[in-house]
């Protein structure tokens, strides 16, 4: 899905005008901006740029790897390349991608929402208890979202 959106709208026009490397970098940059927007919707916290930095860094590394391979400088064996790539993604993910989500507590809210949905399916007659999620004040948006989910009743057959 992302390829079908970013390729014709970002990559192809930029690549046609400024070259392959610029197309790659622009695509990663726009993807970072789109992720920042999604994180804003999830956490309701102002974007910090960390998520965009994650994608720009990976764009730069993709261009660097492409140039190194083309020049014949670097071509590790797949048994070495795969763990290196995974280590890079995990390391930079913990450094730049996950902190904006964890900082606002979106992980705890997401787990509470998932638990609430699963509770609805496990106890068809009664929704899960609101107090088990530690919700005492119903003012925040996240708490209201939990309450909406908790008030769902399964369809009666």
TrEMBL record:
GO molecular function: O-acyltransferase activity
GO-annotated biological processes: lipid metabolic process
Residues passing through the membrane, by range: 38-57, 78-97
Keyword Transmembrane helix recorded: yes
Keyword Isomerase: no
InterPro entries xref list: Wax_synthase (IPR044851)
Keyword annotations: Membrane, Transmembrane, Transmembrane helix
Protein origin, superkingdom: Eukaryota
PANTHER family: LONG-CHAIN-ALCOHOL O-FATTY-ACYLTRANSFERASE 3-RELATED (PTHR31595), OS04G0481900 PROTEIN (PTHR31595:SF57)
Protein's recorded name: Probable long-chain-alcohol O-fatty-acyltransferase 5
Native source species: Phoenix dactylifera
